[in-house]
TrEMBL record, chains A, B:
Residues 1-12 have a biased composition (Basic and acidic residues). The keyword DNA-binding applies. Pfam families: TetR_N (PF00440). Keywords: DNA-binding. Residues 49-68 bind DNA. InterPro entries: DNA-bd_HTH_TetR-type_CS, Homeodomain-like_sf, HTH-type_TetR-like_transc_reg, HTH_TetR, Tet_transcr_reg_TetR-rel_C_sf. Transmembrane segments: none annotated. SUPFAM superfamilies: Homeodomain-like, Tetracyclin repressor-like, C-terminal domain. Residues 26-86 form the HTH tetR-type domain. This is TetR/AcrR family transcriptional regulator.
Amino acid sequence: MKKQGEAKEGAKRGRGRPRGATEQGLETRQHLYETSLRLIAARGFDETTLRDIAQEAGVSVGLLYRYFPSKRAIVLALYEELSARYAEAAVKMGVGPWRERFLFALRTSLEVLGPHREPLTALVPVLVGGKEEGLFSPGTAFSRLRVQGAFVDAALGATDAPGGTTGPALGRVLYMVHLAVVLWWLLDKSPRQRATDGLIRLLERLLLPASLALKVPGAGAFVRTADALFRQGLLGEPAAPGDAGEEPAS
Amino acid sequence: MKKQGEAKEGAKRGRGRPRGATEQGLETRQHLYETSLRLIAARGFDETTLRDIAQEAGVSVGLLYRYFPSKRAIVLALYEELSARYAEAAVKMGVGPWRERFLFALRTSLEVLGPHREPLTALVPVLVGGKEEGLFSPGTAFSRLRVQGAFVDAALGATDAPGGTTGPALGRVLYMVHLAVVLWWLLDKSPRQRATDGLIRLLERLLLPASLALKVPGAGAFVRTADALFRQGLLGEPAAPGDAGEEPAS
């Protein structure tokens, strides 16, 4: 068994480890990552090349390539980082009805994304329209599911959690509502995105009637249909028996 | 005064008219326009160059440039064409409550856009994220206002039109809802965009309770606030006194 000091020394020298796992490698990676995001924020995603990034960071294209072989890899690293931070912040969700837990999950998302608004705004065309790096692409599923999980948890762990399959369906529908608010926030031209605060206040006012309506017979089917449409339409999942985009009878 | 035959002959030869106004010019323009949209649909907006378009159309870059000096000009021509067709189709709106007139306006929009779904899907990054050619850019205001006008008319001409400034505000909010449905339709991965039909059926079920709720005191203020937030947040208009993103007292 190695002594701790030895293991640390080994890690520092990067013996047998992939590039980027040493302390120096991590620093280089972070430098390249931040330079990339700064350039993308300033010039736009399509207008930024790997060559530009290498030049700005003062490294060779070859070295950049070993850390980030494509602009896609940079975007995926950003998703990975933000979704991990979000998952960490979202565990502080309190006990309460789903409408309160949802508002916490939504506000926490905007807080985590806040410092990165500039590169994210530059990435809107990619987030919404990108076939490979888009929000609904299979390649970004890991980060998406991590964030979506917090919204499903907001519904399932609520004091008024709907029963059966309506609970997770509500969580996924709330995740979609959250995405719409985030898109609005990224496009928001008002000073300090003040209009987004207003939008969340309006949403807040709709949540109480919505949570009352969810207790009415048939409302669960409405939520399950909305969820099925989201999965079929935006994620491209095949229709499951009974949710073929049709409203169930209940 | 010229005889009609003379005037027609003059038009044919393009005497003193800008290029594109002769019959042959119009044909060339149409050929270049259709070739552009086909290439953009196949390759994506950013991946298509004016050089590619000229080559595909079998003309010189110089000739293409005289009709379409930039890719932006092509996108604006598409907006112009589709919004004109839409305005024409939307005049057939029948008498009835605003929820029915809105559904007509929404379905008509999807019918007019239908045959152009492929280039429009390729343009989603531009429509949503583009600073100059985007849906909310000042440069596209003419086409936007033409379509928005039909939705404002759907509210104002309804048998249950809300009074005062709530009527036009409702129309603009409905226009926004329509844009969200169009975006969903462009991203819809389900066969024959079946999930969009389902989404419209869900929306239809929400419209009756929504139109009843609009008769409750205070609901008008809610709609006016939503409209003010849309104008400030997405269009970047300055806050007017009384709609500063805050909810009016009423």
